[in-house]
Amino acid sequence: MSLVLDPAAQDLLFREARTANTFTDEPVTEEQVQAIYDLVKYGPTAFNQTPLRITLVRSPEARERLVKHMSEGNQAKTAAAPLVAILSADNEFHEELPALFPAFPQAKDVFFAERPVREGSAAMNAALQAGYFVVGVRAAGLAAGPMTGFDFEGVRKEFLDDDHTPLMVVNIGRPGPDAWYPRSPRLAYEDVVTTV
Fold first, then answer.
1. Which residues pair with 163 in a beta bridge?
2. Which of 19, 54, 59, 160 has its CA 20 to 30 A from that of 184?
């Protein structure tokens, strides 16, 4: 059985897509980022919760503050990318649940009254949304460079608050010269899937 999605789209989103390490200086516009979000917001999450929060780092001053928290190998590319997004999980996402999950507005209090439960759910569902975001960047014809090599606590203190947990930093733009490392191997189907 073949996939319904056009092969060119499959290549764009998955087979040919890579983590970009260099970018051109072509800007990424607010309209592009909004179009990305307006697409990926429809990805499924538990209880339709939407814990992902996106902090766009655009100003030179903010970029300098971010770069100092990046691992050494990620500093130069973060400094040079046209746009950088800090993706975080909002641990108070449950406040939006009565509007986002009207089929059961009591979910806010029944399932998410305790902070540790919210933090676990926010981390899992925001990470799922972060994956959608990266695919959305690719769908916009841009390249994404998602990274977890940074000082999480430093980024949280510098850009967020105690209710937000950083997940990843994503460089975004058009790929530049020598943007790609060679494709790394992937596990085969039979190494991943078990039928019981």
1. none
2. 54
Helix (H) or strand (E) holding 55: strand 52-57
pTM exceeds 0.90, yes or no? yes
pLDDT digits (tens, 9 = 90+) for 151-163: 999 999 999 999 9
Distance (Å, whole) CA 117 – CA 23? 39
Q: Which pair of tokens denotes residue 12?
A: 């764009």
Is 126 in a helix, a strand, or coil? helix
pLDDT category, 2, cuts 50, 70, 90? confident
Query: Bridge-partner residues for 116, per DSSP?
Result: none
Nearest CA-CA partner of 22 in 178, 196, 190, 134 = 178
What distance in Å separates the CA atoms of residue 79 and residue 150, rounded to the nearest whole number?
A: 13
